[in-house]
Amino acid sequence: MKLRNTGNKQISIPMVGQNVKYSGITEDHSPHANPTNNIKKISLLPLIFLIFYEVSGGPFGIEDSVRAAGPFLALMGFLVFAIIWSVPEALITAEMGTMFPEDGGYVIWVSSALGPYWGFQQGWMKWLSGVIDNALYPVLFLDYLKSGLPILADGYPRIVAIVALTVALTYMNFRGTTIVGWVAVFLGLFSVLPFVIMGFVAVPKIEPSRWLVMDLHVVNWNLYLNTLFWNLNYWDSISTLAGEVDNPKKTLPKALLYALIFVVCGYFFPLLVGTGAVSLDRELWKDGYFSDIAMVVGGVWLSWWVQAGAGLSNMGMFVTEMSSDSFQLLGMAERGMIPEFFAKRSRYGTPYIGILFSASGVILLSQLTFQEIVAAENFLYCFGMILEFIAFVRLRMKYPAVSRPYKIPVGTIGAVLMCVPPTILICVVLALSTFKVMGLSVFAIVIGLVLQPFLKYVEKKRWAKFSTSADLPDLHNAYETKESLVF
Length: 487
What we know:
By secondary structure, this protein is mainly α. Helices cover 64% and strands 3% of the residues.
């Protein structure tokens, strides 16, 4: 047995032949027990809705899929895409998130498999992608409200509204993850309920033949794939909050399963109702069009409810995404990848420096258009997912017998094959990107490649303090069973 001293405790890595069990992480031992022992952890129901808002938040923003490809491809896209993308990503998140239940999530996975340099690149790309993604929600929020309040369409009123909304929701993140979780439950139910009602009200108006409309000659594949990709990804984001979850080894896989069902139904049913109940005019299917459909189907009251639901849904997506981004920075700081001050917590247990840092990025990026934001964050997200797939397969190959509280029931070959369809999809999305989006995204990636050595230089010169938390196990060295194991 090899023991590593970590302050006041020892982490044991029992090794018997190939029966490897990493006992440094258990349900009863949280990496953050000391600084947050009075902070309530996230339970199953709030976690389901946090995942729901990390990924979806409801059908707001899926209208472009119909404009790009028509009803049939839009409906089929949300089913097929969920199978080839969402299911593998959710399964990988369940396995890796329970294997490494600490804040930092996918950054820790990649660091353990490929080393700290690539772990930092993963953290940079995913954090930047998350901040860009979060800049969407004030835009979507105001797009739904501008039909009722035209003053918010552009100009200074729109800018002031974006800043005020960002400040208010940032404060909610500051107050704690449990508050964010239960707020997500309330917002989720309020946002989804009008579509359930709309479905019942629309039954007499539905014509099933409208669902089969398709014309492959007039499909905007770039818009279509980007819309599907944006609405069905980010399952891995919840992993950056794993250290804040109550009993993550059991809670996280269950929450991912229930959230996956909730998300797919939350897209498919409103599309089924909307495309079947009104005559098709693809040019009308833009952000906010569901409120117009609600007006036709149910009247003013339902239209206003959909608009209110859209606004609250975007609030929910904003606070959950910011929680994920800020706790990712905290996890990276606790691993010594970025300066120590990012690991500082408020009295509510929240990483307030990371929250402020993420909020600043949102305000700077929120002036871009919806389509530009989606395309840019998808490009960066794709590169991050490639690193995650590589890390997942590499850990399966290199450490097949290490304890995995939840393990996808496939072998190494099955793990590789499971990653093939989403990887092909990633290549297609990247290939369809515009030169503008591609150029800006590659520039952002290059910044990350240079930033990591620069931060190492800063650490060497002691211009900022870097430290690794003694409560966290040395996962990489713990798995070196052949070269460094001492019996």
